[in-house]
Amino acid sequence: MNRTTPGERHEDSSYQPSDVERWVGEPPKSAGRTPFARDRARVLHSAALRRLAAKTQVLGPGIHDFVRTRLTHTLEVAQVGRELGQSLGCDPDVVDTACLAHDLGHPPFGHNGEAALDEVCADAGGFEGNAQTLRLLTRLEAKTFADGAGRSAGLNLTRASLDAATKYPWRRGEAPPGAGAKFGVYDDDLEVFGWLRAGVDRRRCLEAQVMDFADDVAYSVHDVEDGVVFGRIVLSALADRAERATVWEVVRDWYLPGVEDAELDDAYDRLRGFGYWPPTDYDGDRRSLAALKDLTSQLIGRFCLAAEQATHAEYGRGRLVRYRADLVVPHETRVEIAVLKGIAATYVMRSAERVALLSRQREVVHGLVSALRRTAPDGLAPAFRADFAAAPDDAARLRVVIDQTASLTDASAVAMARSLRS
Length: 422
Description:
This protein is mainly α. It folds into three domains: 17-196, Hypothetical protein af1432, CATH 1.10.3210.10; 206-351, no CATH class; 354-421, no CATH class. It contains 17 helices and no strands. It has helices at 35-44, 47-51, 70-88, 92-101, 110-120, 129-140, 159-164, 190-196, 206-229, 241-254, 261-273, 286-315, 331-349, 352-375, 382-390, 394-407, 410-421. Helix 14 (352-375) packs across helix 16.
């Protein structure tokens, strides 16, 4: 099954022939696009990417014209990652593809839906959005089939692009120290995972590190922006030391255990003092919106420039790709990003209103999985019915139900749960 697509090559000698191999060989392609540009196009035109338009980022789609969805967040991550990767010497299409793909595996209701699905399939390998992304790219998103009639090979991306999209290149329970509980592959997908990771241990390629950092930068900045616009965050309130102390507790609880208040205060002072912190509170007029948008742009530039300069200082100014370098992010930059995350978490993600909503969302996910298990295979979509029929055991059949549930948007999950109950 492991064959190079005839006629595909990449003119950039920084990448090796093995980097442009596809898991399943394909007929020769017409000239004019690189294999990596084709990868980007495949993700861009995928149904999974379109569905992100109706999936929760932080606040649910439809509550406000300004709200970010998973899709708009993804496009912003791709823009940040593409430029940072290109400045380091990475192929911009590889980084762009990884960024566009990084949230494809997220189920309805964002991380809350992810936690609910992990609960219902705890005895069948669990659920993780990043492992689901790999499953979508290599199996569920229809584009290429092995030998014309075998199992689906998904979008059949090149090895370099798949590797770049793999944020956590290890199985459940095999994370390196300090990496948490996240993982990037289910046991059912180890064959293709072994192919794309041939000869590499748990180290991430540079392009995957750029994608991960771009994700961190984008949501840390944009979640604060959304919170300000919705009236959940009042930046001037943080001038009060007691108010900041509450936020710093959240930073320690969620992001940087052990960091001292003094270090967080220093990071906050740097952010306030770098020249773009809005001088007045947001009031909805164009001038205050412009000041807020300028803040987000300047913060993104600040964080990316710090990483670019630190990485070049460590590895030189040559082309940095794949495993020739690791992304270097200064500690001070990581603390500044954590400050922004803590602000959004305190005033948006941990609000009483949102906590009540999260409970209702988990009930929808649990009820939907239960109903689909009861009505399968008839209650499943046709593509998943075939998977269900081919599943060898109960755990594999549950995985099919999870696959269908994870593919749904927020609204379609609610609608399907309602219809299956009636």
